[in-house]
Amino acid sequence: MASLRSNPVALVSLIVMVAILVAAVAAPYLAPYDPAAQSLRLRLRPPAWLPGGEPGYLLGTDALGRDMLTRILYGARVSILVGVLAVAIQTLIGVGVGLIAGFYGGAIDNVFMRIADVQQAIPFLVLVVAVAAVLGPSFVNTVLILGVTGWVTYGRVVRAQVLSLVQQEYVTASRALGGRDWRIMLLHLLPNLVAPITVVATLTISAMILIEASLSFLGLGVPPPTPTWGGMVADGRNYLVTAWWVSVFPGCAIFVTVLVINLVGDWLREALDPTLRRG
Amino acid sequence: MKAYIARRLLYAAFVLLGVSIIVFFLVRLTGDPAGLMMPLDATAEDVARMRRALGFDRPLPIQYADFLIRAVQGDFGTSIRHQQPAMGMVLGRLPATLQLMGMALFVALIIAVPLGILSALYPNSFIDRFGVVMALVGQAVPNFFLGIVLILFFSVQMNLLPSSGRGGIEHLLLPAVTLGTASAAFINRLLRSSLREVLGTDYIRTARAKGRSRREIVFHHALRNAAIPVVTVIGLQIVQLVGGAIVTETVFAYPGAGLLLVQSLGNRDIPVIQAFVLLIAVVVIVVNLVIDLLYGWLDPRISLT
Question: Which is the most buried residue in A53, A159, A201, B160, by most CB within 10 A?
């Protein structure tokens, strides 16, 4: 953790990331208004500092007169929750598959890796939107679709690690002492996988936030009236000429969130694995 | 070489078969494929009649065999909304999408290759730092938002380029930049690190000792070897571009296969969605096959046997 002090970019990113997290959790207390509260009188008001802006509405209002700032704060909850839950499911499946495939090898390994090949022949977003269209848009479906379809990276990373770990002497020793397979996997292999999994997980959370935003943008994510960043950008498309802020602020929110998570992820990767330092 | 190609083709066929299973089960995820193909207000009798008419009441293996036989013949059923053959509709839109993807890849390479070479030759210079920032931004900005920002600047503010539709090169420019930026960011960084590694090898030192010009060393000796990981990644980037094309075409109302997919998603036009997924998988598999074969040309040390 000492490397944080010598890495101001990572430090700032970490602070911003925590701030976004706090904003998401505390949205009901921080947000000035109800995210669904509409006002016909205050439709498409510009940000407070521009001419025509309303003092109480810092980032302006959307086409239904809803406060942009409030909705961006609430939108953070969806993005982050979907990202974290989806990655949790991916990790569970990916680690399970990777452990079993790497440990047993042979036919089981072959079957899992061929499934991975097949799945990777379909671009992730294409698979996700197709499944979302069939199942219908909802919060639970979004999390499940991203979680279940996104295990491949984890599976491959874990499998590769396990393949080299099972050659280690302590695994042979455990086996010689009569250690059962599950005991070796959970007690000896899993702890060694924590670092690579953490790195992949951080970097995938941002990827999942981007995919969730794309899904919401296409109208296939969490449905309205729940505010989502991607959905808000889509709402603003019709008002680009007259009210740019409706699209631009939520878009910036996605950009900043993904950027800081990536920067923290890069820092974590270097901190956890010195051999991965960039040349 | 022939044996290698044959084996790769066989493997591609296997992957395609796997994809066909996914596509087959896609419609059956909800357990009621007939209901999916009917309007929401259809009566139970209507759905039951549809189920029998489309053969959804038969055993699954028979349904799959039937699906596969018809798929091989290019028959994915009829678009529920447009009453046209689903595959024909997707194929008709494919050239526009391939044109957009090709242009995006061109934009990505024209930015990434010079930037990557200069960054490798002058590490920690201004241009190298610019590349780092571009990589960070390119990977964090969602492409639908990038598209909207570009429209705001170049169409709304400056009135320079059209914001939607398909026509000449001017219609292609903004969507291609939107779609290609993330790839440009990635390829630039990869080329930089790969080229730096190659420039540190013995044979480059030998070439330098022989008095070859810097230009000759970079372009004749180093770049070809540095290109190998880049070519691999271009294959992966093309897969990414397909996903990005869906969103980009939506932002710019660009009439490609991606826009057709999004419209079909909205209408739950399942046959069209199935045809799209399978066709895209074919494109991906072919691209990966071509890339595998390209290795042999780039690096004769990789024997394709």
Answer: A159
Got the DSSP string for B215-275? HHIIIIIIHHHHHHHHHHHHHHHHHHHHHHHHHHHHHTT--SHHHHHHHHHHHT-HHHHHH
Kindly state whether B156 is in contact with chain A, defined as any CB-CB distance less than 8 angstroms.
yes
Please judge whether B240 and A135 are an interchain contact, meaning their C-beta atoms are less than 8 angstroms apart.
no
Q: Is B257 part of any domain?
A: yes
**Domains identified in chain B, total number:** 1
Q: How many CB atoms lie within 10 A of CB B160?
A: 11
Closest by CA position to B246, among listed A120, A83, A214, A146: A214
Token duo for residue B236: 């992966």
Interface touch A251/B280, C-beta < 8 Å: no
Instruction: List the pLDDT tens digit at each of the 279 positions of chain A.
Output: 556 777 888 899 999 999 999 999 998 898 888 888 888 888 888 888 888 878 888 888 888 889 899 999 999 999 999 999 999 999 999 999 999 999 998 899 888 888 888 888 888 898 898 888 888 888 999 999 999 888 888 888 899 888 888 888 888 888 888 888 888 888 888 888 888 888 888 888 999 999 999 999 999 889 888 999 999 999 998 898 888 999 999 999 999 999 999 999 888 888 876 555 443
- B26 in A contact zone (CB under 8 Å): yes
Residues of A with CB below 8 A from B136's CB?
Answer: 259, 262-263
Cβ distance of B18 and A255 shorter than 8 Å = no
Q: What 3-state class would DSSP assign to A67? A: strand
Domains, in order of start, for chain A: 2-276 (1.10.3720.10)
Cα separation of B203 and B249, whole Å?
A: 46
Residue B237 lies in a domain: yes
Q: In whole angstroms, give the CA distance from residue A35 to residue A41.
A: 16
Domain of B187 in residue numbering reads as 93-267
Q: Enter the tokens of residue B59.
A: 């055993």
B295 burial class (0-12, 13-18, 19+ CB within 10 angstroms)?
middle
Q: Which residue of A has its CA nearest to B253?
A: A237
C-alpha distances in Å from residue B225, one per residue of B123, B218, B290: 19, 10, 18
Mutate to test the interface with B, among A72, A152, A153, A214 (most CBs of B within 10 A): A214
CATH number at residue B108: 1.10.3720.10
Q: Do B144 and A219 lie within an 8 Å CB cutoff?
A: no
Contact residues on chain A for B26, CB-CB shorter than 8 A: 130-131, 134
Number of Cβ atoms within 10 Å of the Cβ of B60: 11
Mutation target among A129, A131, A254 for the B interface, most CBs of B within 10 A: A129
Q: Do B145 and A121 touch (CB under 8 A)?
A: no
Q: How far is B97 from chain A (nearest CA, A)?
A: 14
Kindly determine whether residue A126 and residue B251, on different chains, have CB atoms separated by under 8 Å.
no
Closest by Cα among B187, B185, B179 to B252: B179
Note whether B266 contacts A219, CB cutoff 8 Å: yes
ipTM of the complex model? 0.86
Does residue B50 form part of some domain? no
In a domain, B128, yes or no: yes
